[in-house]
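One record is set out below.
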Amino acid sequence: MEFAQETLEWRATMEAALRREEGWLSLAGLFWLAPGPNPIGSAPHNRILLPAGTAPADAGSIALTGTEAVFHPAPGVGALVNGEPVGSVVLQPDVSGASTRVRVGDVTFVLLRRGERRGVRVWNRKHPARTEFPGRRWYPIQEAYVRTATFVHYDPPRPVSVTNVLGDTDESAGPGHVEFDLGGSAARLLVNDADSDGLFIVFADPTNDRTTYPAGRFLRTPPVEGDQVRLDFNRAYNPPCAFTAYATCPLPPAENHLSMPVEAGEQIEPGWGDV
């Protein structure tokens, strides 16, 4: 009973995160920048088009020079970063670990870096999807899908190619893989990321495009203890692309396509997002 309750509480936390002001359901746009000025605002002539009624018609411009992007607010536009008014500001991208989040009216935007491209992701805190979404769907909780795995650490890390839904491919340092038993068969998954909090894995299985999201699912683990780690597939969850067309999710590497169906974790809610 304690295991089931902990899982339900975790799922409630995931639901709340999805619906927060800058959660995935609030995404309202993804725009790729061109060199030079990129006008931003709610008027139709802007390159970065903000939802009507959420922001000034002409909120300013984002100037892209090489790899640097600078937001210049229009005169009289109250732009905020961390709740403080700003003038022109160099935008730190989402992958920097300290991204610059700019709020104008009811929208927030952040700079993305995907390969050589630079883009802008926009959230609308009044997006109707936040209230219309019917809720995440999950398989029944099953302790049989909690597996103890061996983490095989790569020293040094091995190069891994990670492709996202846009077709962009980045090379990353693969920290290792996990080996475990699933349904009486040996299984293995490459690890996308590892730190003191645990492992992050992107995987696919035969339930995809039937009862689960077509592109695969995510799984995070608790910290590794020695070389052992707990895989709880009841906590396998959908990538952001399941809920919005404006996300840029990583796809499972070819090695992470399991042959056994994983009938645990999050299912698909039809009609939300698209690969």
About this structure: The first strand starts at residue 27 and ends at 32. Residues 135-256 form one domain.
